[in-house]
Amino acid sequence: MIFLPMLAATVAAATPLTSTDPDVRCAAVLAYQVGQAKAEDQAKLMASLSYFLGKVKGRDATANLETLLRGTYHGDPNLLADNAQRCVTELQHLGAEMQAAGAALTANP
Question: pTM of the full predicted structure?
């Protein structure tokens, strides 16, 4: 049984992340938005940024975030317009899933 998790980790690490990866693009969108946000809004955006950075680092713990984010910014001048809605939609689905889980746990502890 220990073999399967090791195999999955090996396969995931075998595909290097690039600046065109959807999770890297969402991280770049949110990092930009954090930089542009008012101080009172930054904490909410940081939570969302952390979600996507966790997905990236979970797939490749050695990923160089600075390199990936720079490549994303320089490689796509339409980064925000092309990716923001997809990233928001993913976060909304996650939020709905978390609310449903919380309601189920509250109703039946």
Answer: 0.80
